[in-house]
Amino acid sequence: MPIPFQIRHAQLLFHTTRRNNTYFCNNSYSFSKPQQTHDRNDLKFVHGKKLLKDLSTWGIGGPCKHFIQVFDQTQLASAIRYCHENSIRFIIIGKGSNCLFDDLGFDGCVILNRIDFLERKEHGVFRVGSGFRFNKLGKQCSNEGFAGLEFAGGIPGTVGGAIFMNAGANGQETADAVESVEIVTKDGKFQRLERADLSFGYRLTPFQTMQELAAIVAVTFQLQRSESSKMRQLEYLERRRKSQPISERTAGSVFQNPPYLGVAAAKLIEEAGLKGFRVGGAMVSEIHANFFINSGGSTSQDMLTLIAVVKEKVDRKFGVQLKEEVLHISPYCNDVKPNKDVTFEGRKIDTHCL
Ligand SMILES: Cc1cc2nc3c(=O)[nH]c(=O)nc-3n(C[C@H](O)[C@H](O)[C@H](O)COP(=O)(O)OP(=O)(O)OC[C@H]3O[C@@H](n4cnc5c(N)ncnc54)[C@H](O)[C@@H]3O)c2cc1C
């Protein structure tokens, strides 16, 4: 059964700590707190200053309460342990290219993953840090004559984000090329999971519901020799350049393509006459209707309202309920309202998924 958007980000994305069965949320936190840093085992935490808009391709989002950047798995495990010891909820992010952060920021710790090694194992086998750039990996493997990740050139995320989301394009998916995934659990243990034990679907992965998961650390890919991989990779990239607003601030496709309909979400949005439609600084792209642009100064509320209005109009016209692919990261994990009120042009819009 598909997981509702709100529930998904409330329950899956946030690694929270609980006291007496109550989620520890400090809603009275003041976001105007001045920046402070402290070192702990070589980790530099920044408190109260880092802006999420600087960590996301959409360029939207307020300050996070704690921020830390990690470059290897020891630092990652150490940062996770620190959050646990101090009852701080945390989220790990790569390039923030699939996330809508909130104007209120995040009342916890954002761990920015920059674990970016690449090891060549046997022929066609690559072990890659989860913070490695996915588009760089796609280009590199294709250049070396290996097929399986040609589609990744042009996806501006990390390997960790790609495996978490099962990113895909042009009939290829991340999961197809995976041999194993290394994770760190909430109690600090490292585990290697074999591909055969993991089941993936369209933008659906076991990591989205894995209770013990703290973070994905590395992925091993098994690729096939191919004479034409480089040509295909360049072809896909060219197609992207022609059909997507690549110079704008976006988060890729906002909605998943509806299953079994044989029609893309972009087509439905376009046919509903919504290209160029805007709410504040948020706008439906004129080039690709499933890409929503921060045209300057978009707030998270502008974007959420635009998403809600587009959903409603497509539903009214075609009877199709679009499902978000982007993830809204709420500032507080578990106090989100399942029926958030969104009003547009004086009307209240039903946003059961926002
Ligand atoms: C111009 C553009 C084009 C795009 N094209 C495509 C496309 O063709 N196909 C496609 O599928 N997507 C596409 N995207 C969306 C996005 O780039 C992908 O979903 C990408 O894989 C997200 O990676 P990220 O590192 O930015 O993840 P983030 O946005 O940082 O995070 C996404 C989710 O993954 C989780 N996560 C990230 N890293 C880890 C980790 N190490 N361990 C555990 N959880 C983690 C985060 O907590 C979050 O829940 C596009 C986006 C843009 C802006």
How would you portray this structure in words?
The protein is of the alpha+beta class and 354 residues long. The chain folds into 3 domains: 5-113, Uridine Diphospho-n-acetylenolpyruvylglucosamine Reductase, domain 2 (2-Layer Sandwich); 118-231, 2-Layer Sandwich (Uridine Diphospho-n-acetylenolpyruvylglucosamine Reductase, domain 3), CATH 3.30.465; 248-349, UDP-N-acetylenolpyruvoylglucosamine reductase, C-terminal domain (Uridine Diphospho-n-acetylenolpyruvylglucosamine Reductase, domain 1, Alpha-Beta Complex). Helix content is 22%, strand content 26%. It is built from 7 helices and 23 strands. The chain has helices at residues 5-11, 73-85, 134-143, 159-165, 229-243, 265-271, 300-318, and strands at residues 18-19, 22-23, 36-40, 43-47, 64-70, 90-93, 99-101, 106-113, 118-120, 125-129, 146-147, 168-169, 172-173, 178-185, 190-194, 213-222, 224-225, 278-279, 282-284, 292-294, 327-329, 342-344, 347-349. It has a 5-stranded mixed sheet with strand order 3-4-5-8-6, covered by helices on one side. It has a 5-stranded antiparallel sheet with strand order 9-10-16-14-15. Strand 14 (178-185) and strand 15 (190-194) form a beta hairpin. Helix 3 runs antiparallel to helix 5. The longest helix is centred in the last third of the chain and has 19 residues, at 300-318. The chain is globular. The two termini are 17 Å apart. Residues 1-34, 334-341 and 349-354 have low confidence and may be disordered.
